[in-house]
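$ fold --in a.seq
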Amino acid sequence: MCAKATMEEFEALLNESLQIDTPQEGSVVKGRVIAVEAGQAIIDVGYKMEGRVDLKEFADMSGSVDLSVGDEVEVYLDRVENARGEAVISRDKAKREEAWDRLEKAYANETRVEGAIFGRVKGGFTVDLGGAVAFLPGSQVDVRPVRDAGPLMGMKQPFQILKMDRRRGNIVVSRRAILEESRAEQRAEVISNLYEGQTVDGVVKNITEYGAFVDLGGVDGLLHVTDMAWRRVNHPSEILSIGETVKVQVIKINKETHRISLGMKQLQSDPWDAVEKAYPIGSVHKGRVTNITDYGAFVELEAGVEGLVHVSEMSWTKKNVHPGKIVSTSQEVDVMVLEIDSAKRRVSLGLKQTMRNPWEVFAETHPVGTQIEGEVKNITEFGLFVGLEHDIDGMVHLSDLSWDQRGEEAIQNYRKGDVVKAVVTEVDTDKERISLSIKALGDDTFSEAIEGVKRGSVITVAVTAIEDGGIEVDYNGMKSFIRRSDLSRDRADQRPERFQVGDKVDVRVTNVDAKTRRLGLSIKAREIAEEKEAVEQYGSSDSGASLGDILGAALRNSERG
């Protein structure tokens, strides 16, 4: 019974000893190199277990192997014994396990790890992190796209672990994060040494439509196109080139975004400081057209000083024409200074003011009464526009077309392009208006015919036509019409048929209309006026005399006279 107990105790102690001394499969163990032969290293991992590892698993980045008998190494124990009775061990797996432990700590602590890019794969590169292989996406190689990654291959450099999964064996790293962090530190250091108003040297790094980026020694600043020169700069490439060293002034620094605004023109004297003295209002200067818009043209008076010639100040005569049809870019022109606003850095210029007002010139050379000749440029409902010298027009109103025809009828006799003669009747230089008259070229037959005739006059006319509504009569060549109601004081005698063509009839003038060139005539009005005059001279019916007696007396008196 004692012997049996002793054997069980011995077996338990033996198993305990085996569990302590025998390495566990799937773990990293220490071993000693006992031989190097046939491209393999024979390693004693203890407890009389030996295994073989290919020498290439001990190779460094350059491919060389530095291993000697007696060296102590760590290996990964896959199995305690294979078919040949040897332990199955691996140096690569040992390094991988060691690397994963180390990398997991670095990932948890967000510290950098060292590695070397050794291969190219789809979408990026492979990186050796000292036993573990990681994936480096192409977008994480550098802060800018890399066209040639050759110089980076095989070079030891730091990386940041972005993601790792030990179970799947995935590690994603970034080189860009390291560079951005270093760059941010460098930017912060450079910016801390800069201040607004400081003058520094920089190198033009990039040029865009709106400006240029200047490297100030690790940090870029934006030099906007409007801050390059006092004059107008259409594109930065006009005055800058990539790689050029320029002197700039720090205009503004944003400490939060690390954005720096730079200026070049601020290092030069501002030409606007002397604008009012150099360009007094009313003075005329020569300038160069730099830009043309729908509303006018910009003219450079000197480098950095531009003024606007508004479209309304470009020509005396061309009112609705695009500025590009009056001037062209780079053309030299004479302009007059009309207004200066130094606060807003604006100069208003005039182009037409450097030339004489064509209406004033016309008024001097063509006083009222002057006869002119011109082409009909336009026909409107109120008259003709006739082209005159210096690209100005004169207007012939409907009422000035003819003495004998109404304007609406007379204008039908004219066509666009006809050359006509007319007389200048008025020149208004302020309103830029010239009035012409075609009818003034001939005599006014109406005025001549009715000379001395006024309202209330009694004249003798000749009957020229008999109509139902009245009679047509002639006076010195001027036709008039007497309506039926004006043919007699007595309704019974208001009959047109009692007259014959050629009869001479005394009538009273009731109206003289020079505009319509018509005389208002009435026999009835003459008879009423004669009766009134007779009553006043020879009595009235109130005194007992009859109207017949009064008219008879007036008739006898006129026969004796």
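$ fold --in b.seq
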Amino acid sequence: MRVAFTAVPDSHLPSVDELLSIAVNAVGGSERQGQVTMVRAVQQAIDADEHLAVQAGTGTGKSLAYLVPSIRHAMDSDKPVVVSTATIALQRQLVDRDLPRLAEALGKELPHEPTFAILKGRRNYLCRYKATAGWPEDDEQDQLFDPREVSATGRMVQRIQEWAEETETGDRDELVPGVSEQAWRQFSVSAQECLGANRCPSGAECFAELARQRAGEVDVVVTNHALLAIDAMGELPVLPEHKVVVVDEAHELVDRVTSVVTGELSELTVSLAVRRVGRLIEQSVADQLQEAGEDLKALLAAAPPGRVDELPQVLGLTLQLIRDTAWRCVTALGPRNADKDDPDKAGQRKAAFTALDEVHDTAVRMLDAYGHASEADRAEVVWLDGGTDRRPPALRVAPLTVSGMLRDKLFGERTVVLTSATLALGGTFDALAAQWGLSGPGEWQGIDVGSPFDHPRSGILYVAKHLPQPGRDGLPQQYLDEITELIEAAGGRTLGLFSSMRAAKAATEALRDRLDVPLLCQGDDSTMLLVKQFAEDEPTCLFGTLSLWQGVDVPGPSLRLVIIDRVPFPRPDDPLTSARQRHVAARGGNGFMAVAANHAALLLAQGAGRLLRSQHDKGVIAVLDPRLVTARYSGFLLNSLPPFWRTTDPAIPRAALKRLAAEPTEPADA
């Protein structure tokens, strides 16, 4: 749906049209109609206090299109605008490139030069007090790590200690090279563990508090979806007071919020609580919780992974025991504000309460997930994660939908602008709007501002209709032959997107001897270095899985062919998505379309979006899975993709790729 918006003039500030024109000229760009449409739509949504979803294709310049009206609103209201992203890469782009250039360009036209700051969760900042005080150890059991890993962690700890003496921000991301979570946890605290600036001896120089203070004094606060969710759903505000939020990479919002509210119970979480409570209570009381944790450990080790639809009696009794013994420990600790004049003891008690509350509350959630009259009444799903060599099995619990939380906590209090290159699934915004809780009429609007790319002239969507449907036994030989012929026609220059790491590795091993071009596979090195190598050497190919579907930006001749091995439906045994499908069906909906098809459409659109990253880019999207054109749901999936020229004739993409390989290449857009 396309809607025409008219800019609303203001008596004392330049219009968004004027500000956008100044900004575009300052960065050496050119006016794009989609960008103009978007900047007006965002301004009107802010003025009307109406939620807005904007699909803006790659190359639209959507960052400028939402930053310009955001800055204008901050100036006019004297309140910051919060911009939330899903990835660190986009945060860095906003803070290091887009906002500094915009601030310089607009400074002379506005009451003051726009200001901005980045704000992360407390865990991302060094805790000065924990770094210097006798804080309770919360590292995992040493036996889970071999001596080499323990030694490596020790070296990282030493690096953090040296860095702590010189850092001005305490921001973990500024520690290069990075350190493991194991090492970092010894120098950071969660919001629940924090003593608070007024009680902590280091409160006056707390890095997290200083970052929050800076955020309260600027026009634009850049954060992430997880912190946005914590702020919206928590009892205490984390972000400065604000009335407007821009959610970039909005297609990731539901998954990130779900992660924030997912609970975990395992031998590690229980034993951590026991260690935290330590000598603060009678040993016999702590031992009761330890024994309950050992019972849980034995149960989880013997149980098969997957959804736990019905609560086995023995598991129910164990969860009740954990709940009750954790509460006994909480009671034995006494008043929560005791020892407030002794920071060391207060810190130990706060850490103990935090760990015990997590264990107790998660056990309560898991018990409450059962006993409903019907599947339609169930609110949460419990499943067993089988663990790995490094991690023991764990029980997890998550809500079947976060739409109610988002509707009440995020959209109920603020004006929210949601944007991404992929929001219109099946050609409409309805699917994602329902997941966000925006199903009511008149409270939101969705627009597609298009793309500056000429998709039918720049790209071919080829579906290998002649191939067999993909099975569960790895890649069929016909798929490997098809991949080989396509890569040979392209002269390399291929990004292979696979539905699983097993498939990506199998294809890499099978094809390395068959191809005369370099072939990289995700996992061979860090993803960032692999993408860099792929971009710098034209014949090189790169195979990988999920993070490559959404995280690769390689304009120019190094990428001419994107291969997608199969329609990326979630695994049938995925506990959360399968439970959500069943829940939708129990309420009279189409669980497959509402969950699995939406998931596949979103990833397909993201994967196809890797091909055209600049005005000069051309190439082929090759989907090997014939279901994209033969299945009953194919129309929905195809309508979620950019309007490439489509074909099922194998000769057409091969000929096009050969022509592209023979052409002199033009430089990528600046």
